[in-house]
Amino acid sequence: MDIKIGSPCMTGTPPSSIPDTAALTGRRRRLLRRCGIVLVAGWAAVATSILALDTLGAAGTGPQAAATTATQAQLAELVAQRDARAAEAASAQTRFTAALDQLSAMQTQLLASEEKRRELESGIGAIQASLHDALARNAETDRRLAAAGTLGTADPDGDMSVALDILSGELESIAARSAEADQRAIEAVRTAEALEVERDEILRRNEEIFAQLEAAVEQSVKPLDDMMKKVGVDSDRLLATVRKGYEGTGGPLTPMGYSTRGNAAITENEARAQEVMVSLGNFNNYRIAVSKLPLAMPVKSAFRFSSGFGARWGRQHQGVDLAAPTGTSVFATGDGVVTFAGWQRGYGNLIKIQHELGTETRYGHLSKIRVKAGQKVSRNTLIGDIGNTGRSTGPHLHYEVRVDGKAVDPMSFIKAAQNVF
User: Fold this and answer.
1) Which of 117-121, 140-144, 341-345 has the highest mean pLDDT?
2) Are 376 and 387 in contact (CB under 8 A)?
């Protein structure tokens, strides 16, 4: 049998089963290209997701950080204003006390001057009476001399001698009394003039004292009036409520003395003094009202203002959020009665306290409630602990202040508290 070189029989393998190296290399390259494309596409998707998450995180934290910075700046400004108001109040109180002391001294001096003037008037009246008596005696002497002249025809030498002696004695007595009366009158006029000068000086100083008193009272009352307007409380209604609760009077009555001399300057001063007393009464009523309003801080430990009053996330945030660790103590901001202590939707564990003069405070998201409904509490009484209950993203206190049922910015009360306490 003939065997041909290159025939398939030489290897025992069919020609179609021999591997094609070029085809394998092409398929591998296409596979590698496809894997590279898949890897690049996956990397792009991951990078895009990371960038989107970073963008969303920045958008979520930017406004909150800005709000926190603004709130901290506002708190710093409130602290500075509190220190300034405290210094002004101390200065006004000092000037007011000094002015009251000066007014008391001036009133004492004025009464003493009036007493001296009345004594001088009595002395001048006595001098005038003595002068009238001297003139009457002088007329009697003239009459006697005339009679002696008539009798002189009977006994010229004896009667004339007697008459001259009598006349000489009377003239000497009249001259002495007249000189004394003139001297006393001159002294009385000088004393009266000195008293007039002293009285005018007292009135001038009295005017200065009244001006100082009025300025001190105005400086003391005006900040409190402004504070009540800022926290949304009607000042007239507030003062009327305080007067109604503190209008008790009593004690024995004594007759009132009235001056009949009709001194217009003193009458005007009395009217001004009455106005000062009314202003002082208003100041005292304001102080009573301040003691009953919720003006203290609900958190005494370190905290952070995490959210303010007003629009937030498309809704109205009716209080302020004070962020602090869970378990931080929460205190009542004013005297009042607990009207609610329990769970309420959104607030979580909630405490409501009703204060006088139509104000109410609320304390939400508490981890623990330490009071009961109906319990009376005083300012700075421990009522609960900060927590994270209800609709909350972290441990904090939601603090609300309401006036006649309407939510107001608690920052106005916090600022007022820093100016008062």
Assistant:
1) 341-345
2) no
Calpha distance 297→417 (Å, rounded): 8
- What are the structure tokens assigned to 222, written together? 């005006």
Cβ proximity of 213 and 389 under 8 Å: no
pLDDT for 324-350, tens place per residue?
Answer: 999 999 999 999 999 999 999 989 999
Selection from 418, 281, 299 nearest residue 361 by Cα: 299
Q: Angle, nearest 10°, between helix axes 235-245 and 156-230?
A: 110
CA angle 339, 401, 84 (to 5 degrees): 135
| 177 vs 135: CA distance, rounded Å | 10
List residues bridging with 406 in a β-sheet: 403
* Site of tokens 């006595």: 126
Beta-bridge partners for 386: 366
> Cα–Cα distance between 215 and 416 in angstroms, integer?
22
Higher pLDDT, 381 or 295: 381
Task: For 67-126, give the DSSP string.
Answer: HHHHHHHHHHHHHHHHHHHHHHHHHHHHHHHHHHHHHHHHHHHHHHHHHHHHHHHHHHHH
- Residue 155: pLDDT band with limits 50, 70, 90: low
Three-state DSSP class for 380? coil
pLDDT tens readout for residues 362-400: 999 999 999 999 999 999 999 999 999 999 999 999 999
Residue 133: which residues within 8 A CB-CB, separation 6 or more?
Answer: none
Asked if residue 9 has pLDDT above 60, the reply is no
For 237-287, the DSSP string reads: HHHHHHHHHT----S---PPP--SS--HHHHHHHHHHHHHHHHHHHHHHHH
Cα–Cα separations (whole angstroms), residue 177 to 116, 125, 128, 129, 257: 24, 15, 11, 12, 40
Q: What does the block give as tokens for 285?
A: 């009523």
* Mean pLDDT, rounded, for 9-31: 54
What pLDDT score was predicted for residue 17?
45
DSSP state of 367: E
